[in-house]
């Protein structure tokens, strides 16, 4: 077990249970740090509350008493808790540091770490990089937003293992010294503005991924993305670009036929199993990263010839009477849905809707030429109905839940068409997670 070395805080308030809060509370307790846990919504019968109290960790639930701040040195908060939380606002006025659990990776001395962020494609790219390392017999562990809590994995990481970590803007807001050996910045699109308030705040959070890097580290970045190109001007790391639009003197790029790295052919594009032009960007990012670890072309080919995607991300579900059903529940913003729409040439019945974050859906308009009908649900249903009417769709149906949506979409569709769940919204108005939403979709498809 790795030890927290140089951790300057003696008493920690962990704010928010969930998976990360529960894990980090146990980690700190094992490392001999004095921990108190506070969660607003948890009940006494919550298994995490029982577990932590059985370890004699103090757990306060039901409210956020401000006197908790009287004798603590630092807050480690659940990434999803906004900084406008009253307890956090008082903590900021008292200049109490507010971190997320990934900062602990610095004190656990995880030096061989690949960190992946971006508005879309994080999970696919993280998985591809991990698979390429494994195919090349490089020991690695996957963590972060995908898989296990990052600090929990880091505590038990072997010296010869590489950590491959998917990181959200919420996590990256709460760092001081954390830095990866290889940072991967995929793309930037206006997202999570209900949390970050402005695009500049969002970009600032994402840029934290490489803000502490030096010339000894690497930054793999999307040379096709204007926002990314602006952000990386402040980077100190060695720059490794990727592009699906331009030939590059170094880094990874694609033409109509091949993928290249440093102007050397890696493999034919036709041999890649994963569909969608947006996934080509994810693939190029993974190739560029893998090459920094000297992964062979053969290992890269073996992965890309067989990898067909991860759950809830343009995941093929079933063929029902010649209708092809795809689960893209991870599409929690407009950019992700535009990428999904571009992946298909066939007519599409689009299932969309969810949490209303105040945005319009005008950004979908240029990509809806193949959309034959829409089935909408959730808080944004009326906005999506307006969108459908504006582009002249005749088949627009509003439903209450996913089972109704699937049945309705099947009725609207014809053979040789695609039924695509790509909501363009977070799930939290009706479902706890996008995974729960996607599973409901798949279960409903299988019931047809």
What does this protein look like?
- The chain contains 16 helices and 20 strands.
- The protein has helices spanning 18-30, 47-54, 86-93, 104-107, 122-135, 150-155, 169-172, 193-196, 199-211, 226-231, 277-292, 297-304, 334-342, 381-390, 402-412, 434-447, and strands at 11-15, 34-39, 58-61, 74-77, 98-99, 113-117, 140-144, 162-166, 182-185, 218-222, 238-243, 252-254, 258-261, 264-268, 315-320, 323-327, 348-352, 371-376, 395-398, 417-421.
- It is an alpha/beta fold.
- Helix 5 (122-135) crosses helix 11 (277-292), helix 5 (122-135) crosses helix 12 (297-304) and helix 15 packs across helix 16 (434-447).
- The strands form 3 sheets. A 9-stranded mixed beta sheet has the order 7-8-6-9-10-11-12-13-14, with helices on both faces. Strands 15-16-20-17-18-19 form a 6-stranded mixed beta sheet, sandwiched between helices.
- Strand 18, helix 14 and strand 19 form a beta-alpha-beta unit.
- It folds into 3 domains: 11-99, 3-Layer(aba) Sandwich (Rossmann fold), CATH 3.40.50.720; 103-304, UDP-N-acetylmuramoyl-L-alanine:D-glutamate ligase (3-Layer(aba) Sandwich); 315-447, Protein-Tyrosine Phosphatase, Chain A, CATH 3.90.190.20.
- GO terms for molecular function: UDP-N-acetylmuramoylalanine-D-glutamate ligase activity.
- ATP binds at residues 118-124.
- It is an enzyme of class 6 (ligase).
């Amino acid at each position: 077990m790795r030890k927290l070395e140089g951790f300057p805080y003696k008493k920690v308030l962990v704010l928010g249970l969930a998976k990360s809060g529960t894990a980090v509370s146990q980690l700190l307790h094992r490392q001999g740090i004095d921990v108190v846990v506070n969660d607003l919504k948890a009940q006494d019968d919550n298994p995490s509350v029982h577990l932590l109290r059985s370890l004699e960790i103090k757990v306060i639930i039901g409210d956020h008493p401000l006197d908790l701040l009287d004798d603590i040195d630092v807050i480690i908060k659940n990434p999803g808790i906004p900084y406008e939380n009253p307890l956090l606002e008082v903590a900021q006025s008292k200049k109490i540091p507010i971190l997320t659990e990934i900062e602990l990776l610095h004190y656990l001395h995880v030096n061989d770490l690949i960190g992946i962020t971006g508005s879309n494609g994080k999970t696919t790219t993280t998985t591809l990089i991990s698979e390429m390392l494994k195919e090349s017999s490089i020991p690695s562990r996957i963590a972060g937003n995908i898989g296990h809590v990052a600090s929990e994995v880091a505590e038990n990481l072997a010296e010869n293992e590489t950590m491959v970590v998917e990181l959200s803007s919420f996590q990256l807001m709460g760092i001081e010294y954390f830095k990866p050996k290889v940072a991967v910045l995929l793309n930037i699109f206006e997202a999570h503005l209900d949390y970050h308030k402005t695009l500049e705040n969002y970009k600032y959070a994402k840029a934290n991924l490489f803000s502490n890097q030096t010339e000894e580290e690497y930054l793999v970045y999307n040379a096709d993305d204007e926002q990314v190109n602006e952000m990386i001007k402040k980077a100190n790391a060695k720059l490794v670009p990727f592009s699906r639009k331009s030939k590059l003197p170094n880094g990874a790029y694609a033409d109509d036929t091949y993928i290249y790295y440093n102007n050397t052919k890696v493999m034919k594009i036709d041999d890649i199993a994963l569909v969608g032009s947006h996934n080509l960007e994810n693939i190029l990012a993974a190739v560029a990263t893998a090459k920094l670890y000297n992964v062979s072309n053969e290992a890269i080919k073996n992965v890309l010839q067989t990898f067909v995607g991860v759950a809830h991300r343009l995941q093929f579900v079933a063929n029902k009477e010649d209708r092809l059903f795809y689960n893209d529940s991870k599409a929690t913003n407009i950019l992700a849905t535009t990428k999904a729409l571009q992946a298909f040439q066939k007519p599409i019945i689009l299932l969309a809707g969810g949490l209303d974050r105040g945005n319009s859906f005008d950004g979908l308009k240029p990509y809806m030429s193949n959309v034959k009908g829409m089935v909408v649900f959730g808080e944004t249903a009326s906005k999506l109905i307006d969108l459908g009417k504006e582009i002249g769709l005749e088949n627009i149906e509003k439903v209450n839940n996913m089972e109704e949506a699937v049945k309705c979409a099947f009725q609207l569709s014809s053979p040789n068409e695609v039924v695509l769940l790509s909501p363009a919204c977070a799930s939290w108005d009706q479902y706890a997670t996008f995974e729960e939403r996607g599973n409901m979709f798949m279960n409903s498809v299988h019931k047809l």
